[in-house]
Amino acid sequence: MASLYRGASIVKLWGSNMKDRMAKKINNQELTEVSEAQIAVHWKEEDYYQPSEKFNAQANMRDPRIFEQFTLDKFPDCFKAYADMLTWFEPYRTVLDTSEAPFWKWFAGGKINACYNCVDRHLEEYRDKPAFIFVAEPESESDVRITYQELYERVNEVAALLRGLGLKAGDRVTLHMPMVPELPITMLACARLGVIHSQVFGGFSGQACGSRIQDSGSRFLITMDSYWRNGALVDHKANADIAVRTATELGQDVEKVLVWQRYPGKHSAKTPMVAGRDVATSRTSPPPPSGSSTFIPKTSTGAWPISAGSPGIPTSCTGRWRTRRPA
């Protein structure tokens, strides 16, 4: 929310002529709350910027007739084309199983692993290409470029760590993390193991995170000690403690809290770690044992990541990160 103060202070900035033209006197203490959307409607710097021909040429959907492929008379088989873009460990039997409606089952019978499709299968051709480019706050910090090979290694490290903490396929964890590279790395590690993960927006409160822990039945919370926001280093560990306390009050116990360090090797939050419950980790943590690249193929109708949205209940499988398109 943006706050607009109206009164003598603004009149003084506008000058005496503006003061003379004001129709009524406004109390100095009056405060009007205006949302960003209300402010945005007054912005006039709107225009259309057409992409270049070079950009259009590399687009996946550049044929305007693509809409003809998705007419109702071709549903649901029209989605076979997208399934064919993925690597399946076992082929699906049915594109859409509606036998237990409204519990729809897409690509029933198939087995697939999201992490394998996002990372492993790109290694042969795009090993040295950036998968992620992270621009940090503060801007004085260097950009972080993670290649597909580095992403593969880091995902396996985290997967080995999670497995060492006792997590296995079918377990549920809640992630309450800011937008840092460790977030998608952790999500991919969970997908690699078949661990169901609920990603809660990092800006949500500890109480909001706790309610989502209870809703998903998670016994693990993965968070970060701190993160930068508008020039300040936020103590995010404090939210983790509130989340655990809230979940407990709602009847869901949290056994472990995995705390990523914003700066490797250093605890950057004022809120201390809780002995016996909290586990700190960073890129400088000891490497995992050999043979840690195991992944669990999941049935296509099985557990998928969920994103806990504003209604207070996990709402969808949407995310906030994108992998960079190999080029």
Count the DSSP helices: 11
Extract low-pLDDT stretches: 1-24, 306-312, 314-327
Helix proportion: 25-40%
Query: Class by helix and strand content?
Result: alpha/beta
Question: If you average the pLDDT, what whole number results?
Answer: 82
Main sheet?
Answer: 7 strands, mixed
- Write the element-wise H/E pattern from the N-terminal end onward: EHHEHHHEEEHHEEHEHEHEEEHEEEEE
The count of β-strands is: 17
CATH architecture of the domain at 155-316: 3-Layer(aba) Sandwich
CATH fold name of the domain at 155-316, please?
Rossmann fold
CATH class of the domain at 155-316: Alpha Beta
How big a fraction of the residues is strand?
Answer: 15-25%
Rg on CA atoms, Å: 24 Å
The general outline is: globular
The first-to-last residue Cα distance is 40 Å
Q: Walk across the major sheet and give the strand order.
A: 14-13-10-8-9-16-17
